[in-house]
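Shipment paperwork, digital attachment
Item: protein structure file
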Amino acid sequence: MAGTTILCSIFFYIGLSNRSGLFNDGGGGGAPFLCAPSINDAANPLDFAGRHSASDLLDTPPSPMAGEWRFPVCDVNLAEYTPCEDVERSLKFDRDRLIYRERHCPEPEELLKCRIPAPEGYRIPIPWPESRGAVWYANVPHKHLTIEKASQNWVRFEGDRFKFPGGGTMFPRGADAYIDEIGKLINLRDGSIRTAIDTGCGVASWGAYLLSRNILTMSFAPKDTHEAQVQFALERGIPALLGVLASIRLPYPSRAFDMAHCSRCLIPWADYDGLYLIEVDRVLRPGGYWLLSGPPINWERHWKSWHRTPEDLKAEQSTIERIAKSLCWKKVGQKDDLVIWQKPLNHNYCKLTHKVNKRPPFCEAQDPDEAWYTKMETCLTPLPEVSNNNEIAGGELARWPERLTAIPPRIANRTLKGITAEDFTKDIELWNNRLSHYKLL
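Attachment content:
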């Protein structure tokens, strides 16, 4: 047995030396192992240099003999610390337009030099799809919403977990029933709508229930009095982001979403010369939809329960209607508490109307895809030029699921710098191959 082991070891090292040239003089042997070349290496070399280092956070580096970096554990009260969304630190900033709830990252001298601990009693999250309806209490230990939103079926506390019945402020009967109502006004089943953004998402039940209809939703909300709403969304397995519409653009390029949604999200759409609707227009694709439910829609029925006057609500809705018209949106329809507008396929007609009604003006010398820390502007992002009134600006996207592998129009038209159709195809092949190995694990 020992002899067999020795022989196996000898032949293993002989094979290794022939493949790698470990014992060669450079004149023979097999080719060495090579990593697969990256796409378009010569033209676009990839830079894998680190941007952040543990040593940046340490006053003095550890001894080379230590062999590893070690940070102490932060205090337990920092278990939910979010550096750029720190509630206490945000109070230093301007309250106007909720600017203080935007991202405000710590200065170098404010950086923590410790590891954020997990909440006490933290458990491995409940797997999808069960997590759509339940998460462990210990992982998100906040009961505030179970009391404040008790009548609206947002979330309930039961035993050692939270349960999510799927309700929302404007859809207490559940997200599925609400989505069914949306489906009576626009087509949610033909694959033309794949990406959506939910502004002021609550616990993200709208996005959670759209997943079963092959619509992928990015939910976002600020870290405010409903402090756990984005935590709930992420713990449930739903894409979500801490964010607010204040003065900075949403962190997405132009023409990114097929549908945008606000269900009593408390965003002042009628204020600031329509700034926030103009930003929604920027991120909507040509032909995309904006959905609004809640104040001021159907104010005739709800004005008393909203504790506002009919005159105030009517004026707000009239202003929203006027702004939508100035963006050249078409009102698709209204059903009870829900109204839907559609962005035009192109700006041919819109440019004609803006020769008379010049508000908002078209943006000039602006990068429509620049997002992070870029100020919003009260100007309309122009769509790519088209040759006729029925053409989709920028090109027509394939419907889902074909969209997954179809070459996007921006790449096919060479309007996205640095990526060609060949690059895209090779990348699809590369990841298909990698995923085939993942499935074997």
